[in-house]
Design a protein that fits this description.
CATH architecture: Up-down Bundle
Number of helices: 6
Order of helices and strands: HHHHHH
Radius of gyration: 17 Å
Protein name: DUF2383 domain-containing protein
Mean pLDDT: 77
CATH topology: Ferritin
Low-confidence stretches: 73-79, 150-161
Helix content: over 70%
Largest sheet: none
Number of strands: 0
Distance between the termini: 62 Å
CATH class: Mainly Alpha
Structural class: mainly alpha
Amino acid sequence: MENLKITEECLRDLVAFHAERIKGYETMLASLTPDEGHLVALFEAFIKQSAQMKGELLQSGVQWGLMEDEVPLDGQFGLAWSVVKTVFSSRMPSYSLAKCKSGENALLIAYHCVEGTDGLYPPMRSLVNKQKREVIAAREWITHFEGLGSPSVQQELAAVS
């Protein structure tokens, strides 16, 4: 019974993280400058990715009786939650990709913590491991796009066009 409680708590945390990630990328998408138009497809892909991951988590949670409307999206889930929420809701001026990378790092920390939780059901641990690898891949895309945004790369692209 204790394993069920631990698994449900971890599941709720990850669902809430993805809800915040979706909201954050939607906000950043709406605030992109014309110079950041190349980020539209990336942000839309991350929104779609989080929606899919959230759905997978909720589908797994149905096995343990968790309903989506029972997931608190404004609760406190420790340091990783605070960092994800702060990064994605920050009003501080910063380059969009720096904010994304910080958010993805915080999400990765959350996945790492959940994956290492004692008492987590093996099928849930497997799903968490799979999704963690997807978050790592997303962070690598951000690194790739950071290079596209640098002044020297922008000058090279302009010279080629």
